[in-house]
Design brief:
Strands 1, 2, 3, 4, 5, 6, 7, 8, 11, 12, 14 and 17 form a 12-stranded mixed β-sheet that branches. With about 260 residues, the chain is mainly beta. It has helices spanning about 65-70, 125-130, 140-145, 155, 200-210; strands at about 5-10, 15-20, 25, 40, 45, 55-60, 80-85, 90, 95, 105, 110-115, 130-140, 140, 165-170, 180-185, 190-195, 220, 230, 235-240, 245-255. Helix 2 crosses helix 5 (about 200-210).
C-alpha cells in the first residue's frame, strides 16, 4: 500500500508525494514514480487535502441500509451532484458554519481518487483508473437543501466553504469491501457502516460517471453515506476515520 499526501513546508512550498518512514517523499505529480526532491520529515510539513480536485462529485442513495430505511429504490446509475472547488478542506482545518446554512449534518464517506483520464470506460478500465481511496466528510445544510420545494438545492447545500473535507492521504492497494467508515464527534463514535453495503461499487461508479463526463487525475468521487449522519454545531471536532487510510478531522466554528 502507498499513501499519497500533499503538504506545505515551513517556507510555504506545496509538495505532493508519498509518505514513507515518517517523511514525505516529493514526486513530480500525483501517481508519478519520478522523484522531485529530497525527503521532508513529516514534522516539518503541514498536511493539506491530498488532492485539489478539478471535479468533486458526490453521490446520493448508494447504500442498501439507508435506501431500505428511506423506502428508496436502488439506483442503476449514480445519483450525483457537484461540490464547489472552494468547499475543499483538509486535515486540521477550521470550518465555519454560516448562519444562512441553518442545520448542518456530517456525512462520513469513502472517497475515490481518479489517477488516469477516463471516458466511456469499461468496468475493468474504470477500476484501473482508480488511484486510491481517501476519507471524505460531505457536510450538508439540510435547511438549504429543502428550502425550495420545487428545486432541491444539492449543490448549494453542500458547497459552503469547507464543506468538502478530504484526507489525510490517498491510499492505494486497499480492498474497499473490507473498509469501515466511522465518524467521531468530540471523540465519540457517531456513525459506523461497512463500505461493502454500497449499491454501486467504486469501479461501477467510475464506469457510469465516465459516460456522463470525462474524469481526470485528481478528481474525487464521494461514494455517498449510510445511516447515522447527524447534526453538528460550532465548537465540535468532527473526524472521519477509515482504517488503512487514517483520520481527517476539522474543528467547527460559528460563521457570519
Amino acid at each position: 500500500m502507498t499513501s499519497w499526501a500533499r503538504g506545505r513546508t515551513a517556507e510555504g512550498k506545496i509538495v505532493t508525494g508519498v509518505i514513507a518512514q515518517d517523511a514525505l517523499h516529493p514526486r513530480a505529480a500525483l501517481g508519478s514514480d519520478e522523484a522531485a526532491g529530497a525527503a521532508l520529515p513529516l514534522s516539518e510539513v503541514t498536511l493539506l487535502a491530498p488532492v485539489v480536485p478539478g471535479k468533486f462529485v458526490g453521490l446520493w442513495n448508494n447504500f442498501k441500509a439507508a435506501a431500505e430505511k428511506g423506502g428508496q429504490a436502488h439506483p442503476t446509475h449514480p445519483l450525483w451532484f457537484l461540490k464547489a472547488d472552494t468547499s475543499l478542506a483538509g486535515p486540521g482545518d477550521t470550518v465555519a458554519l454560516p448562519e444562512s446554512a441553518g442545520r448542518v449534518i456530517f456525512e462520513g464517506e469513502l472517497g475515490i481518487v481518479i489517477g488516469q483520464t477516463c471516458k466511456n470506460a469499461t468496468e475493468a478500465e474504470a477500476e484501473a483508473a482508480i488511484l486510491g481511496y481517501t476519507c471524505v466528510n460531505d457536510f450538508t445544510s439540510l435547511d438549504v437543501l429543502n428550502a425550495e420545494p420545487s428545486f432541491p438545492q444539492w449543490t448549494r447545500a453542500k458547497s459552503f466553504d469547507g464543506f468538502g473535507v478530504i484526507g489525510p492521504v490517498v491510499a492505494t492497494g486497499l480492498d474497499w469491501q473490507s473498509l469501515v467508515v466511522k465518524v467521531m464527534v468530540d471523540g465519540r463514535e457517531r456513525q459506523s457502516y461497512d463500505a461493502s453495503d454500497m449499491i454501486l461499487s467504486p469501479p461501477r461508479i467510475v464506469q457510469l460517471l465516465s459516460q456522463d463526463m470525462t474524469l481526470h487525475p485528481g478528481d474525487v468521487i464521494a461514494c455517498g453515506t449510510s445511516l447515522g449522519a447527524r447534526p453538528v454545531k460550532a465548537g465540535q471536532v468532527v473526524e472521519v476515520v477509515i482504517d488503512g487510510i487514517g483520520s481527517v478531522g476539522v474543528t467547527l466554528a460559528a460563521g457570519a
